[in-house]
Amino acid sequence: MSWWRRGRASTPLWQRDRKWWTTLIKGVGLALAAFLILFPILNVVLISLMTQRELVQYAGGLDLFPRHLSLAAYQLIFQGGIVTRAMLVSAGITIVGTAASLVGSTCLAFGLSVEGLPFRRTFLTIVLLTFLFNPGIIPLYLTVDYTHLLNTYASLIIPVLLNTFNVIVMRNFFMSIPNELLEAATIDGAGYGKILLRVVLPLSKPILAVMALFYAVGYWNSFFNALLFLSDTSKWPIQLVLQQYVIANSALPQTAQNTLEVIQSPEQSVQMAAVVVAIVPILLVYPFLQRYFLSGVLTGAIKG
Amino acid sequence: MTENVDRDEGPVEQPTVNRQDLGEGRLDRRAFLQRGGLAAAGLALAPGAATRLTTAELARQANAPLSNTPKYIPANVPAPDLKGSGTVPAGYYKLPANLTQSYPAGKTPAHGGSVTLFEPLYTPPPTSPSQNQWWQAVEKAVGASLTPNMVSSGSYPAKQAAAIASGNVGDMMMFTTYVPNFLQLLQHDFENLTPYLSGNNVKKYPNLAALPTTAWKNSMINGQIWGIPIPRPIANTCYESRSDFLTKLGAKVPTSGDEFTQLCKELTGSGRWALGPGSTDGNSHWQWDFFFQMFGLPNGWQVKNGKFTSFLEMPQAQDALNYMVKLQKGGYYYPGGPVATTVQKTLLQSGKIWMYGDGITGWFQNYLNTTLANPEGSMAGIVPPPHDGKKAHQVYWNSSGIFSNLFCGIAKASKSRIETLLQICDYRAAPFGSKEYMLMSYGVEGHDYTVNNGAVTVTSTGTNENAGYTLNYSAGPPYVIFYPSQAVVKGMYDFFTACAPVGIDNPQYGLYSPTLATKQATLQQLYINGISDIVSGRQPVSSWSNIVSEWRTQGGNQIKKELAQSHAKAAKA
Fold first, then answer.
1. Interface contact flag, B147 A232, Cβ < 8 Å
2. Which chain A residues touch B350 with a CB distance below 8 Å?
3. Is pLDDT above 50 for A255?
4. Dihedrals φ, ψ of B550, to 5°?
5. C-alpha angle B362-B364-B369 in degrees, rounded to nearest 5
6. Contact call for B162 and A85, based on CB within 8 A
7. B172-174 and B145-146: which strand pairing?
8. What is the pLDDT of residue A72?
9. Which residues of chain B does A266 touch, with a Cβ-Cβ cutoff of 8 Å?
């Protein structure tokens, strides 16, 4: 039996007459696509491990097999405590923010999904309106200022606590739960709170996992609110610090004021090391949530 | 007044093409649109922003003469190794053994309280004040707690607009670009420093008095001092070249267009190209400004009988474009597109290209990496040779000599508060060779840096503490050439010396055109795209006249008119 015919019994009928070369073409195509996606990441990782001398020698190109691997860039960025601290800030914001967002979104989505609740349509319209009209930067800044949240960690969470899209997806998921289940619980004497906690949430693990991932990635990657609202640089999350590492090299040489600024502008390997450090944590989360991912997205999205 | 006339009569550059404008205060189209729109919104929302200047008031301001320029009183600095004069800064090979005291010992500019400076940040952020000895030392020296609002440089205008709208301008705010209704904003929120600093008044602040007169003049708006300028070299734009290539070829620095072309031909081949792409600032496509200077074009504007003509409108612009097309067709340009990516910055260092415009302060890093890759590598700045070979026709476009062509404004406050803040600026402006300079630029000796036989080495702690940034853009010392490499100091000094006799100023500095303030980036993008298209071969050189007409109708004509009016009024005053 040829290798490409293995597993025939489980192959759907329309795929049974596969030719070996179609499998080969698909394999090559997919490998190419995977390479195109992985190459920039590989590029970043390799540059972060290269010495400055090699980087200069390969100007503009990429040495796929650097002879001298060096962890100096990583040592440098972890040495000063700026990146370490920013990572902790980001982790804190991500954990607290994700938890708060999940609680908020679940409550709102459940409220919007329960039929017969007064003003449900009105609230839904209000929620949907925020989908269409976003506040500009200045109104947002003024609101945060008036509520005395400037330069606080809360300013990174509260303005983005609820994501309309996520709330709507959750609401749709909740609505897909058979009404009979909720009615049975009501007959058993459960109130809305108990129904949510004992019936709806246990059935909603996939959507909760997906929402957790969406919110967590959002919190981890967000930098603009931090840029706007935080003046104390020791409160900066990793993405903002990362941005400084990456932009500094291109902007500095033009007009750096003194030798110190020039000396301090990070080398390319340091910039890339900062990129790696920033993407690794969120990359690690994906595999753990992946099994919930597909079912969660599809279930929530299809039911309208 | 004399200085005013000098500046106005010289054919000079437009700040829109000024490399300094494109560096720290970089302006791309998107950023500009975002910034312009936001700033406008910010003003509309600013509490009490309804107070607007009338046309007559603005006109009166435009009349103001430059007689308000602070008196120049040189500071007492250690003798340099290379003497500075005029626009050539002094050069130091070593840190002077005996540092001077430029602020009275035992005195502090402030006595308690806190000071907030709103400024752009171009480096990774400093470590937090509680773990930062340098920061603590600066606070002690200044006598106030420092709470700077450091904003990532790329998003500076967006946050600045929001801060202005909410009235959170801090005690001091650095302006990296004009914001719409700039004069009105200054009038409303910022102190007019003219009474504090004009003429002999500046004597109370000796370090500010030692700032070059050009820096003050170019930062003033309609003759009024609205903030403290941060000095930069006048010859801030530099085309750096690998001089070791010429030595190997036995060639000399070209002195005419023909020689330049011939040299490009000889340098190109075997994986090497004579000319690099435009610098990463994204506005010097195909290094166009170098070639425009080769053809003797004025620095931004030519003023004759009070009439302004843009360099874009002059016939030599087409000649320069024809020449660039010839170089492109000859294959002398690195084939990577009109503008360098960050990665391509290393092309010069690795020896793939001969010439690359990276700004004067990119020199040191380029030199370091060049010698790292090739110990025999060397660098020199190239002054654009006159195309016709006539020395009398050689020009170099001077920069404004100040960071971002603007200044650090001081928010309105009581007289005593303003004086305290000016004292802090005075401390920050301590010249090279003083103890105060060392603290602000390098930190605490033994902790942030070490000195060995006149060479300063920054420790990794110093790199991370980076607390000079607490007051970095409040003021700055006069520029001197001091790098931990004699070759760099000498090379830069030679470049400055070569630029000085052929340097021409931009007549626009000190004049104010509201249209230019709002349309600068759009108009700049218009002609830069045009240049890029023509040299890339997408459009013929003849399309240049259409670009110029478009430039005129989109705001160029209005700008010319406004500058002429501003110029006429200033001349009468």
1. yes
2. 56-60
3. no
4. -65, -40
5. 95
6. no
7. unpaired
8. 81
9. 124
Count of C-beta atoms within a 10 Å radius of residue B165 = 24
For A208, B107, B142, B322, B396, the CA distances from B203, given in Å and listed in that order, are 68, 17, 19, 52, 34
Q: What is the mean predicted confidence (pLDDT) over B274-297? A: 90
Residue B66 carries which DSSP code?
G
Mutation for testing the B interface, residue in A143, A240, A257 having most B CBs under 10 Å = A257
A163: tokens are 């994501």
Q: How far apart are CA B322 and CA B537, in angstroms?
A: 11
Residue type, B250: G
Phi then psi for residue B408, to 5 deg, are -100, 115
State the ipTM, two decimals.
0.77
Q: Look at residue B30 in the predicted model and tell me its pLDDT.
A: 35
B438 CB neighbours in chain A (<8 A) are: none
Q: What is the distance between the alpha carbons of residues B183 and B224, in angstroms, rounded to a whole number?
A: 11
Nearest residue, CB atoms, B464 vs list A80, A259, A263: A80
Q: Using CA atoms, how far apart are residues A103 and A99, in angstroms rounded to an integer?
A: 6
Q: Which two tokens stand for residue B252?
A: 């000399």
In this predicted structure, the answer to whether residue B38 has a pLDDT above a threshold of 80 is no
What are the residues whose beta carbons fall under 8 Å from the beta carbon of B54, sequence distance 6 or more? Answer: none
Structure tokens at A127: 């929620």
Q: What is the mean pLDDT of residues B91-95?
A: 93
% pLDDT > 70, chain A? 81
- What is chain B's alpha carbon radius of gyration, rounded to the nearest angstrom? 23
Neighbours of A67 (CB within 10 A): 8
* Residue B310 Ramachandran class (φ > 0 left, ψ -120 to 50 alpha, else beta): beta
The answer to whether the Cβ–Cβ distance between B154 and A247 falls below 8 Å is yes
Minimum CA–CA partner of A250 in chain B? B342
* Token digits of residue B391: 């020395």
pLDDT the model gives residue A262:
44
Lowest-confidence region among A29-43, A44-58, A83-97, B27-41: B27-41
pLDDT tier, B570 (very low <50, low <70, confident <90, very high otherwise): low
Quote the tokens at residue B276: 């690099």
